[in-house]
Amino acid sequence: MLTFFIIPNNSIAFAVEDDIKQEPKTEEKAETETEAEEADEKEEGKEESTPGGAENIEAKSALLMEPISGKIIYEKNIDEKFAPASVTKIMTMLLAMEAIDSGKVSLSDKVTCSENAKKMGGSTMLLDTGEVRTLEELIKGVAIASGNDAAVAIAEYIGGTEGDFVILMNKRAKELGMKNTTFKNCNGLPAEGHLSTARDIAIMSQELLKHPTILKYSGIYMETISEGRKSPIELVNHNKLVRFFEGCDGLKTGYTSEAKYCISATAKRNGVRMLSVIMGAPTYKIRNRDAGILMNHGFSKFQGKKLLSKDEDVEEVKMGEKTDKFFIAKALNDLEVVIPKGIDGELEKKIVIDELKEQYKVGDVVGKCEVYLGKEKVGEVQIYSDRDIEKGGFLEGIKYNIKSIFK
Questions:
Q1: Per the residue annotation, which of 60, 76, 89, 330 is the catalytic one?
Q2: What DSSP designation does 392 have?
Q3: Measured between alpha carbons, how far is 32 from 202 in angstroms, rounded to an integer?
């Protein structure tokens, strides 16, 4: 599938999915094809929102997950290995977001595009050798336009070389329990042995969703990058569900002639987020339709509940058995759970404190609050101390014992 965009100075930037290569078209032809595709996408959007049964899934492999708990709701050949194409870039984005959120790098960091990055084929954000872009712009280039050049630029910046970055990708995959995945590059271009599964893609997608900033980028349909360029870069999202499927804000599409059409798609409605992975669909329409069918199925079966707001008091925690000293554990983030509709049963909160320390500073993470529906854990949130506090020593214990005598 080919999309053209008209940009200033009578130049045309065009993006293709992964390994498809096309010759540039005239401006007039580009306009005609863009209009035709827009009409096609609108019709596609109607199909995607039409309720359907999971028995109609045509892709070779498919999965539906509720990503808060990790519960798999639907599966089809989810451990069969396939080429993941550009869905690979979920791991590239995950490593980038982990580096950003840990403070190792910043979104505003300046990254210089290498010749190696520029020469990448397939989908591209049209970077030039020596061009300097912010890390945030490169992440947009990956999340929106599936830029193979942007992915390599990110890999080289974080890993030193693309090869070293791929080592980090495989290491992280192993840590996450992705048992059937081997990465050979950072962008998903065809390479022997570059394989993954729907289950593994769901696992890394679930992990990426723990960095919600990424949805600010993967949920953008169109973005223009013009600073420092004679011809602006027009990024248009390969994931048309972002535009036509209610609540969709990510994550990543993929296509190669070997992989066929793939996607890791996520959407949120009424407090419920669903994650659908499709691999080996014969057309992009079937890929998007299958993903839409599964997510609609999830939305029809589950409901969301918000139990705690960010910074809300959770529980009083004593500093020990023989002390009156305590702190208030607060929620580090909102705590939302997703549970089946029509299920009766009390949600039970369980406070799990890490090994109790002698002292805490305000803001220190002290453990987590877990939520259970029966025996099944349906959500959790980290909790932190609301104050600076010390447990106290020998004298504190004596004072406590004296108080206890006169109670």
A1: 89
A2: -
A3: 37
Asked which of 8-22, 186-200, 313-327, 376-390 is least confident by mean pLDDT, the reply is 8-22
- Superfamily of domain 2-301 in CATH is DD-peptidase/beta-lactamase superfamily (3.40.710.10)
Q: How far is CA 375 from the centre of its chain?
A: 28
Q: Is 264 a catalytic residue?
A: no
**Residues contacting 223, CB < 8 A, separation 6+:** 140, 144, 234, 235
Choosing from 60, 61, 69, 86, the catalytic residue is 86
CA distance 324 to 299: 47
Range with lowest mean pLDDT among 21-25, 145-149, 174-178: 21-25
- pLDDT at residue 14 greater than cutoff 50: no
User: Whole-angstrom Cα distance, residue 370 to residue 96?
Assistant: 28
Helical spans, DSSP H, in 245-351: 284-301
pTM score of the predicted model: 0.83
Q: Is 86 known to be catalytic?
A: yes
Is 107 exposed, middle or buried (CB count within 10 Å of its CB: 0-12, 13-18, 19+)? Answer: middle
Token digits of residue 63:
């999965």
Most confident of 215-229, 333-347, 379-393: 215-229
Q: How far apart are CA 355 and CA 65, in angstroms?
A: 32
Number of Cβ atoms within 10 Å of the Cβ of 391: 17
Report d(CA 182, CA 188) in Å as an integer: 11
Indicate the pairing of strand 313-318 with strand 260-269: unpaired
φ and ψ at residue 52, rounded to 5 degrees: -155, 165
State the Cα–Cα distance between residues 303 and 130, nearest whole angstrom.
49
Residue 61 a catalytic site member: no
Cβ 241 vs Cβ 41: under 8 Å: no
Residue 46, pLDDT above cutoff 80: no
Whether 108 and 131 have beta carbons less than 8 Å apart is answered as: no
Q: Which entry of 69, 114, 146, 205 is annotated as an active-site residue?
A: 146
Six token digits for residue 265:
């798609």
Which residues, 6 or more positions from 103, have their beta carbon under 8 angstroms from its beta carbon?
none
Helix boundaries (H) for 281-344:
284-301
> What is the average per-residue pLDDT within 309-323?
89
Residue in 302, 241, 306 with CA at minimum distance from that of residue 274: 302
Ordered by start, the domain boundaries in the chain are 2-301, 309-405
